[in-house]
Amino acid sequence: MKIIEFDWIFSGREGLLFIEELATTRNENVFEVNSIKICVEYLWRFYYKQLVKAVIIPYIIYFIIFVVYALYFYDGEKLYGFQVNHILGSIVLLRSIFFLYF
């Protein structure tokens, strides 16, 4: 049994530099090291739910709104007294800016 302590990754500059180095390395052989594999699996379990909440769910919502806008409301048809193409078009524009930024 091997024990590796990873709490230093979440505190201090060294952890941030370590993760940045892993993210930008061109040497794929680094990921064959057993301790690096364990570290990446640990980080994935930690960040998976946050990634889904912050990126995947908003993107799915954006995609659905875009498809509805593009297929049904692009011609400016009024719905319940609102100009739907302006509302959905604004949402599509804002979400596009969000996904371009992040």
What is the number of E strands?
Answer: 2
Q: pLDDT below 50 for ≥5 consecutive residues: which ranges?
A: none
Which percent range describes the beta-strand content?
A: under 5%
Q: What is the CA-atom radius of gyration, in angstroms? A: 21 Å
Please state the structural category.
mainly alpha
Summarize the structure in words.
- There is one protein chain.
- With 102 residues, this protein is mainly α.
- Helix content is 69%, strand content 4%.
- It is built from 3 helices and 2 strands.
- The protein has helices at 13-24, 34-73, 84-101; strands spanning 78-79, 82-83.
- It has a two-stranded antiparallel ribbon.
- Strand 1 (78-79) and strand 2 (82-83) form a beta hairpin.
- Helix 2 (34-73) runs antiparallel to helix 3.
- The mean pLDDT is 77.
What's this, in brief?
It contains 3 helices and 2 strands, in the order ααββα. By secondary structure, it is mostly helical. α2 packs antiparallel against α3 (84-101).
Secondary structure layout plus pairing:
Layout: H1 13-24, H2 34-73, E1 78-79, E2 82-83, H3 84-101
Antiparallel strand pairs: 1-2
Helix pairs in contact: 2-3
Structural descriptors:
two-stranded antiparallel sheet, mainly alpha, 2 strands, 102 residues, 3 helices, 69% helix
